[in-house]
Protein 1
Amino acid sequence: MKQITIVGGGLVGSLLAIFLAKRGHKVSVFERRADPRRTDTYAGRSINLVVSHRGWTALRAAGVEDAVKAITVPVFARMMHDRDGQLNRVPYSIENRAIYSVSRGELNRILLSEAEKLPNVSLHFDHKCVDVDLDKASCIFQPDGGEAMTVSADVVFGSDGAFSAVRAKMMHGRFNYSQDYIEHDYKEVAFPPNADGTPKMDPQCLHIWPRRYFMMMGLANQDGGFTGTLFMPHNATKDSPGFDTVRTEAEVTAFFKEHFADAMPIVPDLVEQYLRNPQSSLVIVRCDPWTHKDKVALIGDAAHAIVPFYGEGMNAGYEDCKVLNDLLNEHGDDNWATVLDLYGKQRKPNGDAIADLSMRNFVEMRDLVADPQFILRKKIEGRLQAKHPDQWLPLYSQVKFTDTPYVDALREGQRHDRIMEKVLAMPGVEEKWESEEVERKAMELVKASF
Ligand SMILES: Cc1cc2nc3c(=O)[nH]c(=O)nc-3n(C[C@H](O)[C@H](O)[C@H](O)COP(=O)(O)OP(=O)(O)OC[C@H]3O[C@@H](n4cnc5c(N)ncnc54)[C@H](O)[C@@H]3O)c2cc1C
């Protein structure tokens, strides 16, 4: 049994506490913010997110799948809204598989409560980590309004998010680090349900308004409403408006009328919300190594903050927890030097790969989903998958519906790009995409590509 400190009781830290406590370790979680079960911690932040296959694999392994399933809404397809309000529904998979929308706050509250049920877990809110002694696995916490305290442990996990204090301490040594803000910021708006609580749009779809250089999406909540998120450049460019040029009531009204006219009647106070709600930035963090000897490890966004366009940040963090648990199963709970070393080496390339995949999906969501070539490609890929399921699994399915390591999925996606580029270049492919000729050509290219 080890004494373990977890810095950060967010989405990943709370699940990690459950995994480690169920192994018999004594786990203390220190969270900078107040207990979200008693306060509205999540006000103004992304209020829902998507749990997908990898997340479920980890939640199941931790024994909390059912508790989480109960608070989700299944989402089976993208629903594209064009400028004229025309809708186009594109399923996520040919087997009708779903991703699951969940309230961020509710998920965190459930996991904290599940952790707290375990006798060897203690939760400490309003405790901010201000320093870490990496060699000694001891942390200094500053409680709200109290005296700073030193907490010693055998192992420390930094699950303290994109601006991790644990990682900041690791940067004092031999440590590689990069932080990139993308040009787009985001802003959330709440889409209310009808007066009788029914949803105003199909809740089983992720609604997307792709506008080439910017986009809005809407994801269902359990109460019949949706969380809408507008992604737009921080500064306007010659091709796109930006948050800096859409500021006044008149500008915001004109902007939504021009680009998202069909959303306006659904959200009567759209303009007020836009003006009131915070504008947030999106950052990609890569670092290496993720561990310090047998004493400290980074996990979740602290190790790999990514942009949200694949909806995989938390799922990747949950997969980190599952992989760590598997390594402890394999090497035992007394062999932390080996376990942490293998954990870092296995997960780091996957963290980089999902960072790349997420940027790639941004281009797909904001731009390509409205592109006829892209829609044609999806149809051809769907047909290939249906006829040759052992030889063609689209990239999206590999990322969202399998445990295929992200690194392998990325490599496969690049191979698919090369093949589909040639298939889409076939003369008249728009008319004959369902023909045997197109299928034969694609399968020849598949065989030649190995
Ligand atoms: C708009 C948006 C949409 C997203 N959608 C999805 C999605 O659909 N699916 C998905 O999988 N992911 C999604 N993500 C990503 C997801 O939110 C993150 O990957 C996830 O929250 C990471 O969890 P975490 O616990 O590692 O970090 P966080 O959720 O950031 O939690 C870190 C915790 O550490 C605490 N903390 C920080 N510093 C300290 C300190 N010094 N001392 C003590 N405590 C500290 C914080 O208060 C916080 O509670 C989205 C992100 C954004 C921005």
Protein 2
Amino acid sequence: MIKYVPEMTSVVMEEIPDRVTLAVDISNCRGNCIGCHSPFLKEDVGEELTPSVIDSLVEANFGIDCFLFLGEGRDPERLLELAAHVRSLGLIPALYSGRREVDGNFWEYFDYLKVGPYIPEQGPLNNPGTNQRLYRVLGADEKAPEGAEFRMRASGRRFIDITPRFWHRGLEAQK
Ligand code: SF4
């Protein structure tokens, strides 16, 4: 089961570049960031996030094109089912993970993946010294943007590190 904190759900413009994103805070966080800003998200709090709850959230937030899971919870199978449901609605699934690396199959389900724990000395995504990375994962037939340097997973999935896009902003990254 995946749970979220309904009162923290909001539409955001900066967490995923060029997207209008509905951001949903997921509890039961598996991360262990030293500078954790929301320790309560490590607890089993909130309400169950189901496909029908996602449908209602999407319906109530017309105009979004991306659905961001802020945290991944402790039920990866269910998380991936929910990500697939998001995609079936024509939306882009994105994940902010607090772990250094996510399971290999996550790269098949999300178009944006953020990895790396929050370390106060290195700061969030908008700090050029950050340890965190936001990757844009390209679809199988998708062309890489001109001039973009992409890397490839063993699975053949290509991805681009878009973290530098945050270094021109005053973004207060959430995780
Ligand atoms: S990912 Fe977020 S909620 Fe989880 S430990 Fe890190 S800062 Fe805390």
